[in-house]
Amino acid sequence: MRILGRLPLYIGLPLVVLGTGCGYSEDQWQAQLAKYTKLKADDDAKLADAQKKIEELTQKLAAMGVDVGAMKADLDEREKALESYKARAHQLELIKERFEKLKAKLDTLTKLGLAVNVRHNRMVISLPGDVLFDSGRETLKKDGQEILLKVAAIIKADPQLVSRDYQVAGDTDNKPLAHGPFKDNWGLSLMRAREVLVFLIDPAQGGLPIQHWSAAGLGDTDPVADNGTEDGRQKNRRCELIVMPSVEEMLDLKAITQQ
Description:
Shape: elongated
Strand order of the largest sheet: 1-2-5-3-4
Structural class: alpha+beta
Order of helices and strands: HHHEEHHHEHEHEH
Radius of gyration: 39 Å
Strand content: 5-15%
Number of strands: 5
Largest sheet: 5 strands, mixed
Number of helices: 9
């Protein structure tokens, strides 16, 4: 840029000299013209020499297997990748902050003796099946209703919690049903999930917004403990209130909670 910036000087000064009428003689004018012509020639030579050195260096790098054009493109890509990474990291921090606030609110449920954890990349509130139902039955016991009313009260009291989507999932142990109207553990788990769902969305009971709730029966397909022991089977007989993740939260929530 320095060399190019001087070009107007070479062209402009002789014109100024001619137009000023300051009494330059022809010899003086020719001397000045020769001086500026030499300066321009010297700068042109320097520019040509610099261009030649650049070309030689480019050729040497190419001989070494270095693609200068690719290097620049790679640097541009790295810069773009860095900016993209910074943006994703910022977004992740926002999601993590929101997730931690949500988990802190749900941790209130642990005071009721309920477990709140992350399973299959979803936040889960686990309700003991033996507290909710009698063996092989789908009718809620009084103790179960009282727990569900407390859970519903906590969710309704918080605008963020009440606006989330939930799924009630029924789970059983692996002991097959020998008789009854449900035919198998699939049927029992689904009817139990439905019973909890209906209670939670009933305006006279839980009073939660129906549009945010659904139900599923998983039978014995998702155990949390060993079905080979009575203690394990008891833990597997449960209903879970699953906080369904939003699109933004489709990442490794368990990893976030361990950071």
